[in-house]
């Protein structure tokens, strides 16, 4: 322990944070200056990782919640050699690897994308669940820790309720979170917006809580030592810190703890940029330098970390030699590969709701895919994830041998936890609720897409046919919202989301196949509450074999030569189109093709020739959707016609709503005839 070098290191971090924001003329300097002491002590004395192998699967992980404190991470990781001087000097600039909010970059130490407050630490909870899940299967040697860093804003975000409750309930003792409590937020002191007792709140959730002086290195050190020794509870370290610690004014007086230091360069506040750098021991002429003594200290630190990691890896090698089968299974989990799966062999009864067909698939997967965690927001018996639960048991405090997470009524929390599970690696996360409640999940869905995570979302009760529950539970606009993400590209240039709405049991099996094979983007399965008549087969092959064409996003479930009209839908409306086509053929002598488009996003990735073969632009096109017409307007074009809903639902039995809204074979056939008169 060297108090002088510890102080120099923390001040170096502060100076770098100040300089980054000042040069960019944009950012948040005050918070990073307050958190610098904790970061230095954590990484220099407690954090276990391999600087020569940053993606080492058994490293400790740091999850930043307060993404606006990105400079704190960049400065710390610059000292650790993960960034170069020009990287920190180009903070927030085009093409830099130091964006305004951290974006997942494991090779440089960034474990998660953060910015929307509350989500970062909740992803950390997910990673802690993943670590415990793997530990229960492979042994106590897998003892890496998950560290979180949260601010006043993150504590205030409602999601902290769900994350705090679940972490405490499960006894996630491998999760240690530092709360940078500086009593200042962007526009006000915290006492203008809250008077809650944060310590008592977390204790009520079952956490171990300690309050310290966040600038006292000995207190930080003891808190981290005790937290690492804790075996029953997650730990919250409330660090009382000072916003803008180290700032001084032009007359050399202290200028700390001010609200204006939160969200703008300190040169635009009552603090003086040059005097502050001098106060912190930096050279204003070269503010991005690492101090000489700090550079020597961190070089020695990195050498020590590599040796410590080498020792840990040697212990793991001994375990591998003693447990070759378990070692092979662990490697398979971490590879992200799937076992051999026979989706065609999953039998479904006739006329199932697609949620029920999904339940059958999940029951099969529970026995075949050992590294899957399924979660439901208090709806497992309704969203039918109980098909999985019946083959395993729920995760519990002290027992992570199960594979089901009962999240309670916390859709957003559950989804963020799934992102954290995916970020940790080795486990496939699945989360489920009613489709209408996807509204609660959208912030996490968006971060799933940005981070390119293979989270699987299961949404049931997919349309107004929820029936008696009425408009609050009947999704009308949700599919349009979700399908927008299929049109939005991620930074790899691919659609950021895959939305699948299967038309019958066979398509549901294929949808699950597509979801599991889609490893680098999130997938949503949109499933019906009510039973759906299975689609007819066109030839001698099985319905599943024909439904495999869904892997192209869309295909013809009914096909004739030179059709008079092509009908387009997805989900349960495809069966309605089949009923309508029977009427149109029998009563009106029309020739009809029917296209089932499970995913427009995937369909648009196919060749123009294939798209034209399914939905020819030189034929009359009629779309049917239980949601907003925009769901299909891009497929049928301006010359086509889409029949959908432009209003909320009503409370009534589903069959009555079908009749009232015009979603019967007879009424749809009349709509088609009326449309054909206009072309």
TrEMBL record:
<dbReference type="GO" id="GO:0005829">
    <property type="term" value="C:cytosol"/>
</dbReference>
<dbReference type="InterPro" id="IPR005474">
    <property type="entry name" value="Transketolase_N"/>
</dbReference>
<comment type="similarity">
    <text>Belongs to the transketolase family.</text>
</comment>
<keyword id="KW-0808">Transferase</keyword>
<dbReference type="InterPro" id="IPR033247">
    <property type="entry name" value="Transketolase_fam"/>
</dbReference>
<keyword id="KW-0786">Thiamine pyrophosphate</keyword>
<dbReference type="GO" id="GO:0046872">
    <property type="term" value="F:metal ion binding"/>
</dbReference>
<dbReference type="InterPro" id="IPR009014">
    <property type="entry name" value="Transketo_C/PFOR_II"/>
</dbReference>
<feature type="domain" description="Transketolase-like pyrimidine-binding">
    <location>
        <begin position="352"/>
        <end position="534"/>
    </location>
</feature>
<dbReference type="Pfam" id="PF00456">
    <property type="entry name" value="Transketolase_N"/>
</dbReference>
<keyword id="KW-0106">Calcium</keyword>
<dbReference type="GO" id="GO:0004802">
    <property type="term" value="F:transketolase activity"/>
</dbReference>
<dbReference type="InterPro" id="IPR005475">
    <property type="entry name" value="Transketolase-like_Pyr-bd"/>
</dbReference>
<dbReference type="Pfam" id="PF02779">
    <property type="entry name" value="Transket_pyr"/>
</dbReference>
<dbReference type="InterPro" id="IPR055152">
    <property type="entry name" value="Transketolase-like_C_2"/>
</dbReference>
<keyword id="KW-0460">Magnesium</keyword>
<dbReference type="InterPro" id="IPR029061">
    <property type="entry name" value="THDP-binding"/>
</dbReference>
<dbReference type="GO" id="GO:0006098">
    <property type="term" value="P:pentose-phosphate shunt"/>
</dbReference>
<comment type="subunit">
    <text>Homodimer.</text>
</comment>
<dbReference type="Pfam" id="PF22613">
    <property type="entry name" value="Transketolase_C_1"/>
</dbReference>
<keyword id="KW-0479">Metal-binding</keyword>
<protein>
    <recommendedName>
        <fullName>transketolase</fullName>
        <ecNumber>2.2.1.1</ecNumber>
    </recommendedName>
</protein>
<dbReference type="InterPro" id="IPR020826">
    <property type="entry name" value="Transketolase_BS"/>
</dbReference>
